[in-house]
Amino acid sequence: MKKPIFIAAILFAVLFLFYLVFEEDTPDPKALPQGERFLPLKASDIQGLRIVTREGLTFRCMKDTDGSWNIISGERKINAAEKINDFLEAITTLTEIDYFHADKNEKVLDQYGLYEPTARITLTDLTQKTYEMLVGDKTPAASTGVYVMLHDTNRIAILGAVLNWELFKLSSLFVLSDSQQE
After folding, report:
1. Which long-range contacts does 129-138 make (Cβ < 8 Å, 24+ apart)?
2. Are 100 and 112 spatial neighbours (Cβ–Cβ below 8 Å)?
3. Whole-prediction pTM value?
4. What is the pLDDT of residues 100-125, one digit of tens each?
5. Radius of gyration, CA atoms only, the chain
6. 3-class SS shares of the chain: helix, strand, coil, % to 5
7. If DSSP states are collapsed to H, E and C, what string results for 4-63?
């Protein structure tokens, strides 16, 4: 009587191991696909940051050799470095929800708020290459996204509205540009 139970247990164990080894890890078809990262940068590679808003507020900082942030134009507050690092971490990890190509003419760009963008964000990396992002309007669908475009492309991406939240958190460091103060 013990021999058939032993054989059944071994057979069950072999089938179970076969299942574990050869079973494909299939993705959940209901899950949304993860998009590509919008920027090909890591936060630690960014050496310079410049933000200019539609209203003329500006913020500019450069990373010193010791890794600290030198604020060139903007408010110098106690937690400024933390806000800058949080912003850069968020902006470099944003993934595209969707994207499309569009002509770079005034009418098309204005349709997405990119002709006169809400903000122009310029990032400078270790090699002194710059990436200029134009931040446009919120998407109509429950405002859960925002239209964004790299200045030198005709590709408009939809990113999560977390970008607006991060800009808002950093906005306490913005000041009027020199040309606006005169």
Report:
1. 130/48, 131/39, 131/41, 133/39, 135/163, 135/164, 135/167, 136/109, 136/112, 137/112, 137/113, 138/164
2. no
3. 0.77
4. 999 888 898 999 999 999 999 999 99
5. 24
6. 35, 30, 35
7. HHHHHHHHHHHHHHHHHHHCCCCCCCCCCCCCCECCCCCHHHEEEEEEEECCCEEEEEEE
